[in-house]
Write a structure and sequence with these properties.
Blueprint: E1 2-4, E2 9-11, H1 13-19, H2 22-31, E3 35-41, E4 47-48, E5 56-61, H3 68-81, E6 85-89, E7 99-101, E8 107-109, H4 112-123, E9 127-132, H5 161-179, H6 181-184, E10 188-191, H7 205-223, E11 228-234, H8 240-249, E12 256-262, H9 267-271, H10 279-295, E13 304-310, H11 317-320, H12 325-336, E14 342-345, E15 369-370, E16 374-375, H13 377-385, E17 391-393, E18 400-404, E19 410-415, E20 427-434, E21 441-447, H14 454-460, H15 469-479, E22 485-488, E23 493-498, E24 503-508
Parallel strand pairs: 3-20, 5-6, 6-9, 9-10, 10-11, 11-12, 12-13, 13-14
Antiparallel strand pairs: 1-2, 4-17, 7-8, 15-16, 17-18, 18-19, 19-24, 20-23, 21-22, 21-24
Helix pairs in contact: 5-7, 10-12, 12-13, 14-15
Length: about 500
């Protein structure tokens, strides 16, 4: 029966169905998203939840760190995450000027730019994660075979291992002399970058890389046993088990494991299978693989550092520049918790030149900050996810991450994931909090198409290759998150409506 309050009349169900077309009723049902309920027991036992995803970031090459724009972006990301380490390529590239030979062939060392680079990081409150790469031209066995990156790093083995040993020892000793062993012992020294692909031209790749690692690790330890060295810094989570086996059998020092993976890497390359692993599963599937390999090795307690990861290794604006990154990052953190010690996002800034000088602000770059200092949605996602607490509350959901902060607040991330190529749909979720006192309120922070979406603003202005100063200011304004919403809980319950690809943070105080 239907009660018509304006005329105090009743209609039978049959009459009502006759008056309302069945097509309209069906359309209304389709437009109303189903509501999922997730229960959070706020008194449940928690476990530690270290913020492993925001301890370190990557960047391009070493000399970029001397630029003012790079340092401004660094401080912006430091301000929202408090990150501790920064990694980049090419500390031995010729534009840093570390190594040269005079006419007689004598090696000369110049650490002037090295000092400026590392002084700049330390003055910003960030420590170096030292990637030992690439080969100085005059030390390279094959200097005529550069990598195709725009700045053409040399991927060759050294022409003389004695000269390489001296370079590494002089480099490490200079750092200890300048900054002190108590400081440099907190740094990481990672040997090379992705030697299993085209960043290393030794032949065969694996055995020649192991020779490089053996020399380098022993050189560093000769300066001080307190210095931390590791590898293999491979692409696609490769070589980890054999690398540990090699180090143990040959008594080569290793203090941590490092490797890389991207969301659009293939199962063939990472696992040797023909699976179709979706973008939101690949990173943590690879992390689980490496975690299990380390656990089964002769060194099961080695820290695991994914010193590069992202949703894409290609330039895909609808991925790395878009609001898609909010749900993708949150879901990756949820899955990778407990599998890695550090998950280092590649990169913090689009002050970046692997493909050459940037041609427009939004081109699918890796950074959290676009050219011109414009924060991307990924920047805002890291800002919001930083709010999560340091103790994890168990929750039976693949789209909710529940935590407790040191001040007793309950902080949740919830998201509405869909693949970049899919439009997605609105999702409703009811959060039922058990164990509260009854007077709590929720503060809700939102990243979606209407809040924190600089890419959307850029597209709405016609995607100019060279925005004006006024347009850059409009883009920065669009990158700001909206004012958070304050809501009361109803019997410990709150219902959220999440647009497609939205990320929301809920703080219960």
């Amino acid at each position: 029966m239907l009660f018509c309050c304006s005329r105090r009349c009743w209609l039978s169900a049959a009459a009502f169905l006759f008056l309302v077309p069945t097509g309209a009723s069906a359309q209304s049902a389709r437009d109303t998203p189903p509501t999922a309920t997730v229960t959070i027991n706020t008194q449940a036992a928690t476990r530690p939840f270290p913020h492993f995803w925001e301890q370190m970031f990557g960047s391009g090459r070493a000399t970029l760190s001397l630029r003012e724009s790079y340092r401004q972006d660094l401080l912006a990301v430091k301000g929202i995450t408090g990150f501790e380490y920064l990694r980049f390529h090419g500390i031995f590239d010729d534009d840093v000027g570390v190594y040269s030979e005079d006419k007689s062939g004598k090696a000369n060392y110049n650490f002037s730019y090295v000092d400026q680079i590392y002084d700049g990081l330390l003055s910003s409150g960030v420590r170096p994660y030292v990637e030992i790469s690439f080969m100085p031209r005059q030390l390279a066995a094959a200097p005529a075979v550069p990598h195709p990156f725009w700045y053409h790093p040399i991927t060759s083995p050294p022409k003389d291992w004695t000269r390489w040993d001296d370079l590494i020892e002089q480099f490490a000793r200079h750092l200890v002399d300048r900054y002190g062993i108590d400081e440099v012992s907190h740094w990481y020294f990672e040997v090379w970058n992705e030697p299993n692909i085209d960043f290393w031209s030794g032949d065969p790749k694996q055995s020649t890389y192991y020779e490089l690692y053996d020399h380098t690790a022993r050189d560093i330890k000769r300066v001080s046993a307190r210095l931390r060295v590791g590898g293999p810094s491979t692409a696609q989570a490769a070589w980890v088990d054999s690398f540990i086996k090699h180090d143990v059998e040959n008594k080569v020092p290793v203090d941590f494991i490092s490797t890389h993976v991207y969301g659009n890497d293939t199962a063939t390359n990472v696992f040797g299978t023909n699976e179709n692993i979706p973008r939101d599963r690949m990173v943590c599937r690879a992390a689980k693989k490496v975690h299990d390999e380390v656990l089964a090795s002769a060194r099961p307690k080695l820290p695991i550092i994914f010193s590069e990861y992202n949703a894409s290794y290609a330039n895909e604006p609808d991925v790395t520049d878009s609001i898609f990154m909010g749900p993708w990052l949150a879901n990756t953190i949820r899955q990778c918790d407990g599998l890695v010690d550090i998950l280092s996002y590649w990169t913090f800034s689009d002050v970046f030149e692997e493909q050459g000088v940037i041609k427009k602000p939004f081109y699918g770059g890796f950074g959290l900050v676009a050219e011109g200092g414009v924060p991307k949605p990924s920047f805002d996602a890291f800002r919001l996810l930083h709010m999560l607490g340091t103790k994890r509350i168990p929750v039976d959901s693949n789209s909710v991450l529940a935590t407790r902060s040191a001040d007793g607040s309950v902080v949740l991330a919830t998201w509405n994931y869909s693949a970049p190529e899919q439009p997605g749909a609105v999702k409703k979720i009811t959060l039922q909090f058990n164990g509260l006192k009854g007077d709590e309120r929720a503060t809700i922070y939102v990243l979606d198409k209407d809040s924190g979406n600089a890419l959307g603003a850029y597209e709405s202005m016609g995607s100019p290759a060279n925005p004006t100063r006024q347009q850059y200011e409009r883009l920065k304004a669009a990158a700001n998150l909206g004012v958070p919403e304050e809501r009361a809980l109803n019997n410990g319950r709150i219902t959220l409506t999440l647009p497609a690809k939205a990320l929301e943070i809920v703080v219960i105080r």
